[in-house]
Amino acid sequence: MKLDGKSVVITGGASGIGAAIARAMHAAGSRVCIADLNLEAAEALAQSLSGVAVACDVSEEAAIQNAISVAEAAHGPVDIFVSNAGFGRGQPDHAASADNDTWNLNWQVHVMSHVYAARALLPAMIERGEGYFVNVASAAGLLNQIGDAAYSATKHAAVSFAESLHITHRDQGIGVSVICPQYVATPLIGLGDDDVDLAENLLSAGDVAACVIDGIQTETFRVLPHPQVAGFATARTADPERWLQGMRMLKAKADRELSGSSLLEFYKLV
Ligand SMILES: NC(=O)c1ccc[n+]([C@@H]2O[C@H](COP(=O)([O-])OP(=O)(O)OC[C@H]3O[C@@H](n4cnc5c(N)ncnc54)[C@H](O)[C@@H]3O)[C@@H](O)[C@H]2O)c1
């Protein structure tokens, strides 16, 4: 899909990958609506991009509907919806130790928000024969994030929902890209643009945004900003026992070499 003149909503657009996507889409000629919990930061960025901002908690269906209304009032029917908002809390102890509120929030933010956007937009997009969903999942949605079972499970569900969207609606003119990066230097892992040189495989938010733009323009389903993820995913499917053995070795290394906030430092190991 071409980006010039398109009406776009970006959730979690006030920071990190979402903010970089907003900048890249504006540069490509789109009109952006930045929807975020953090209205102040969303407004500041929107102003610099001649766009609009809206306070939005993506875990609430009415808030997604409201963000779409704000975008449509400013820029016309939404052509591209970028479901990017996300978070990572880790698990305090064993694999089931995160409390139910944390599991539910992971499910709402990483999966249901994608469902809410599709539910609100699909009927009109199908009628127009055109529309695009960019769903930011994670390499954890194809592999696993050691130390955060809720994040891993819900990112897998996000990839699966994106597949369902594509299978059901691609032939009605609806495009879907699911974005599956490994580690990106953003506040989510306590880093920023100045930290990209800390590890070889660490990307900047701008690097990921460039892959997103390319993914939309080429209408590519699976977008892997870290290309090596394709090989890991293939290895996981081809020989699950061997892949799990490798993951256990990686976990043992993390237990030996990383500090208490190991989730934030995992980028040092991959
Ligand atoms: N940074 C990484 O290493 C990495 C790797 C793979 C995938 N991702 C995914 O990329 C996406 C963006 O993450 P990021 O790294 O840019 O993080 P970030 O913390 O820099 O930005 C996340 C943004 O989402 C917003 N947000 C969080 N919960 C929200 C909610 N309920 N409603 C609305 N907005 C909400 C935050 O206010 C923030 O502006 C997430 O889905 C994350 O899981 C990140």
What is the secondary structure topology, with strand pairs?
Elements: E1 7-11, H1 16-27, E2 31-36, H2 39-48, E3 52-55, H3 61-75, E4 80-83, H4 100-128, E5 131-136, H5 149-169, E6 174-179, H6 205-218, E7 222-223, H7 228-238, H8 240-257, H9 262-265
Helix pairs in contact: 1-6, 3-4, 4-5, 7-8
Bound molecules: nicotinamide-adenine-dinucleotide (NAD).
Nicotinamide-adenine-dinucleotide (NAD) binds at residues 11-12, 14-18, 36-38, 56-59, 84-87, 109, 136, 138, 181, 183-184, 186-189.
What is the overall shape?
A: globular
Number of helices: 9
- Unreliable spans: none
The CATH superfamily title: NAD(P)-binding Rossmann-like Domain
- Ions and ligands: nicotinamide-adenine-dinucleotide
Strand content: 5-15%
Order of helices and strands, N to C? EHEHEHEHEHEHEHHH
User: Which topology does CATH recognise?
Assistant: Rossmann fold
Average pLDDT reading: 96
Extended strand count: 7
Radius of gyration: 18 Å
Spatial order of the strands in the main sheet?
3-2-1-4-5-6-7
Distance between the termini: 33 Å
What percent of residues adopt helix (DSSP H or I)?
40-55%
Structural class: alpha/beta
Oligomeric state of the chains? single chain
Total domains, how many? 1
Largest sheet: 7 strands, parallel
CATH architecture: 3-Layer(aba) Sandwich
CATH class: Alpha Beta
Write a short abstract of this structure.
The chain has helices at residues 16-27, 39-48, 61-75, 100-128, 149-169, 205-218, 228-238, 240-257, 262-265, and strands spanning 7-11, 31-36, 52-55, 80-83, 131-136, 174-179, 222-223. It is an alpha/beta fold and 270 residues long.
